[in-house]
Amino acid sequence: MKTEEINEAIQETDAAIQEADSRESVTFGANRNKDFSKEPMCLSGRGVTRVFHTGKITTVAVDHVDFDFHRGELISIVGESGSGKTTLSKMLLGLLDPTEGEISYMGKPRDISTRAKKKEYWQGIQAIFQDPFSSYNVFHKIDSVLLDCINMRGDKNLSKEEKHALMTEACSFVNLKFAELTNKYPFELSGGQMQRLMIARIFLLKPTILLADEPTSMIDACSRATILDMLLKLRDETGMTVIFITHDIGLAYYISDSVYIMEHGKFVESGKPDKVMLEPEAPYTKRLISDVPKIHEPWDLSTVG
Amino acid sequence: MAKKMLEVSELTTKYITRTGENVYSVDHVSLTIEEGKSLGIAGESGCGKSTLALSLMGYYFAPLHYTSGTIVVDGKDITGLDPDVVRKTVLGTDVAYIPQAAMNALNPTRKVGKFIEDVIRAHELPMDKKQIREMAEQRFALLGLPVDSLDKHSVELSGGMRQRVVIAVSTILNPKVLIADEPSSALDVTSQKMVIKMMKDMMAKGLVKSMIFITHELPLLYNVTDDIMVMYAGQIVERGTAHEMVFDPVHPYSRGLMRSILVPEEGTRDVKLTAIPGTPPNLKHPPAGCRFAERCRYATPACRYNQPPLLEFAEGRSYRCMHSVDHLKEVYEGED
Lengths: 305, 336
Hints:
A: 305 residues, Rossmann fold, 22% strand, B: alpha/beta, 11 helices
């Protein structure tokens, strides 16, 4: 390597690190430890139930759950596989109808009976899924993915330049370079980049509620902070409610304003993370917390059945 | 001094891509594990952890190729053997390997007991069906697994149970080294704990003499293994005991990893969570200097064109960085 090349590379690194300092660590805004109970209600449910029938077998996937999600709050729903997390999230998204109970959206009972009403509802709620690789249409290039979002939020009549500027802004928000992406297909990106592009979509759409179903479980622990930071920033900028579905208890403890613990379709415990995670009351929560390997406390292997 | 179970020196293996390029995913890796000890390997995806695990078996198939170095298991050199010989005389008896999605490896049309028969047959041991069955029952009872699961098909077992069955089957011949590549990453916390408990039991009972545990979940690694080794871009960048590595990492990369740990414990909500910017380098064209320099916030011009060697700076601790340990510690202290 020539000296010039090296110097150039060093300058690049320095610039990247400076940018990283502001971006790659999780910074909590004023919303950290805020009391959200006085904020207006965003999404709430009473006695929400979903029963599946397969032949003669009935499975109660979600069993009479009550919840209150406030505006701007970051809620984590924690549970193991089979606890009904995904069924609940599908009901929240309006992809599945509850067999019993009622969901209210912005203080009014949610009405998604017709296709048009459903579309209207989806302008307010958006989702990021676990597997970024299957979240995209592989036949569509990245710019068309983002263009769709612009059209969806009603900016169809903007000029080409304005649309371009919007897409560039969205990409730079998630630390991607739009100019390098325009002609690429989603599968040419890495998992982390794809997940970031997913957040760029959310940035364009600015929904009132974002449902994130295990958004970091396919991503390395070390790039997790970047994704989390972006979600938090989005929340601070737009006052969006974020519902985090996860099985990572350490993550839920770190990031949320309130936590719901789910077991066999029921919420067994809910409240502030400090209370739920550090002084759990329900036996299930106690077991869950004790099963997580920790750093400062010993991990008791003898309590396993 | 305890007996050395696994001694690897300067092992280098490469992938040959379809276009004929060489990718050295394991680059001059040396490590030793003593009897009764376990070693954890940490690193991001794409750092060569899993390739190292594959390479340590001495069983190479395209596109992975052996280049140089030696692997000695309990005094027996297993490098350069024919794959068929390796399968018959090394796998299962000297080295057992549990891949990431091991529980999907069970053939759904056969009963669990049959898999154990298969292992015995493959090694051409003089045992009849009854003896094998007795041995299997004894082993399952010893490990706390229900003996009736031997007569079940894999689909009848839960995920955690399947994983434990795979581990029990692959260690039936008491291997000297068990290599576990993310054995619990697809499981719930409770099933994960059961798998770990069983693996620790096997170590304590001497069924497995030593263990290599690969995962990117650091809190788990900290609780399972005695030592931790951090890999980056095919090289070892730091090694030390689990406690030292988590609480006192020296290499900037290890420090970055340790700062991404999240556990539900008091005080962790106030810690600043940081990410390491960028992605690991493409090993088709490895950087000329330190491989981490591009992403390292402490990199100097010297880091760009000098390859730092792996240096031992204390008993059992080594690191690969251009900076001195004292300098790095000073910088870290200034940051906190």
